């Protein structure tokens, strides 16, 4: 009896009590507010933009006959679209007032399904027609994204682990080398049914809004809590004031990312997995640069508190201090990558000196671009442009790893690194005096 009553109460609290019907997908009212809802929210538009960019890169790769990279970028499109859908669903189940708008809850669910399925079907269709060898890896991306979607609908805080999906993307091709595509069809059907059932059971959740706001402020970058000790405290002071808005997370992330890279090298070497550890660590280090200004823009009111702290001589002094702290941060990131490269070389990775220099320069120019563009950003929409730096760095280093495998000459890559570093230095220096140019109150 208690179970029946509990199910009855739970059903009455569902956001879509009557479920989603097939007629809802052909009803024009279901798509009202689509543009405003998806393209004026920084979380969803960032992921959607990444998804659309993946299709553009896939088309470009096909044009220049680089079909080997199509699976990676299509996987990026699928996973990014699922993150955008999860972002909107998290926002929906965390909003207590969403029921006051007629049809709003149904529209969000319908639009989420349509957007995800459109990206999924287009990605699979593109792979089948133009790059059949990548179909299995794209299907795996669909399976993983659906599984993550289903898991986050059960436990909304799981969205904070979305970074793991993007880290895993470069391994999809290796994971599916000896797996035929038809083996993934049955698990795909099961996951689709599970997600369908869960979408019909959406209810308001008290933790969803906290997850949404945490994602907005911290850029979806999550680390487990650690007690502060002398090393982290000194490192945090060394990075001040660049670490002011992020807090101890910046110093903690630098230490943990470096340790993660060193630990990941061990199984990669022992079991001959040939994981691109330097690519993964480079992406995480770049995200730390983006996090500095992402949190600054989100917590812009804290700039007044920073400005009032002793040690700065007016606004110019604050700009100079922030600039010097950013230089120290980039230096530490390059040293972290150098440590990973030396450890990889000692463990038997085939890393030549030119390739190590290339990896160090790639961390340098990507960090300069991220911090430079971040300093120029006045709002989150502008800050989202740093996603281009992350994607460009990922593709650039991915292609260079493939060049290393076929023993291609590294001269072209080093020339490109030097040119990008020069451009990054110019942007970084120019952006120094653009930070808080309208005073700390007006960003």
UniProtKB/TrEMBL annotation:
Where does the source fall among the domains of life?
Bacteria
Q: Does the keyword Transmembrane helix apply?
A: yes
Which keywords annotate this record? Answer: Membrane, Transmembrane, Transmembrane helix
Provide the leader sequence positions: none
Residues crossing the lipid bilayer are 37-63, 70-89, 109-131, 138-156, 179-195, 244-267, 273-294, 329-347, 353-376, 412-430
**Record protein name field:** ABC transporter permease
According to its UniProt entry, this protein's organism is: Shewanella aestuarii
Classification of source organism: Bacteria, Pseudomonadati, Pseudomonadota, Gammaproteobacteria, Alteromonadales
């Amino acid at each position: 009896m208690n179970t029946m009553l509990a199910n009855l109460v739970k059903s009455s609290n569902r956001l879509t009590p009557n479920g989603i019907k097939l007629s809802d997908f052909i009803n024009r009212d279901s798509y009202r507010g689509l543009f405003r809802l998806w393209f004026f929210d920084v979380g969803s538009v960032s992921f959607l933009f990444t998804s659309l960019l993946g299709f553009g890169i896939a088309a470009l790769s096909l044009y220049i006959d680089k079909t080997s990279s199509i699976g990676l970028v299509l996987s990026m499109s699928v996973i990014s679209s699922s993150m955008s859908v999860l972002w909107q669903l998290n926002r929906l189940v965390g909003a207590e007032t969403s029921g006051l708008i007629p049809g709003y809850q149904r529209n969000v669910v319908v639009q989420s399904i349509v957007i995800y399925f459109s990206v999924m079907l287009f990605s699979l269709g593109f792979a089948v027609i133009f790059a059949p060898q990548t179909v299995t890896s794209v299907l795996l991306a669909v399976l993983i994204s659906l599984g993550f979607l289903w898991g986050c609908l059960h436990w909304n805080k799981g969205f904070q682990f979305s970074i793991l999906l993007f880290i895993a993307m470069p391994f999809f091709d290796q994971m599916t080398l000896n797996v035929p595509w038809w083996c993934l069809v049955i698990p795909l059907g099961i996951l689709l049914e599970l997600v369908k059932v869960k979408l019909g059971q959406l209810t308001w959740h008290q933790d969803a809004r906290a997850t949404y706001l945490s994602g907005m402020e911290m850029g979806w970058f999550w680390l487990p809590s650690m007690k502060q000790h002398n090393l982290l405290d000194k490192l945090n002071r060394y990075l001040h004031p660049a670490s002011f808005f992020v807090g101890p997370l910046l110093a903690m992330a630098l230490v943990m990312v470096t340790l993660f890279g060193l630990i990941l090298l061990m199984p990669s070497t022992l079991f001959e997995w040939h994981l691109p550890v330097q690519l993964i660590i480079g992406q995480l280090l770049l995200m730390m640069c983006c996090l500095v200004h992402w949190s600054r823009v989100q917590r812009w009111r804290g700039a007044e508190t920073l400005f009032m702290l002793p040690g700065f001589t007016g606004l110019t002094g604050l700009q100079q201090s922030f600039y010097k702290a950013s230089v120290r941060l980039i230096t530490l990131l390059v040293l972290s990558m150098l440590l990973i490269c030396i450890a990889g070389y000692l463990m038997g990775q085939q890393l030549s000196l030119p390739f190590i220099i290339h990896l160090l320069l790639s961390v340098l120019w990507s960090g300069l671009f991220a911090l430079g563009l971040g300093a120029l950003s006045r709002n989150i929409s502008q800050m989202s442009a740093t996603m281009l730096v992350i994607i460009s760095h990922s593709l650039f280093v991915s292609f260079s790893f493939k060049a290393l495998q076929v023993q291609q000459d590294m001269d072209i890559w080093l020339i490109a690194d030097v040119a990008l570093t020069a451009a990054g230095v110019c942007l970084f220096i120019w952006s120094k005096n653009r930070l808080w140019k309208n005073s700390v109150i007006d960003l």
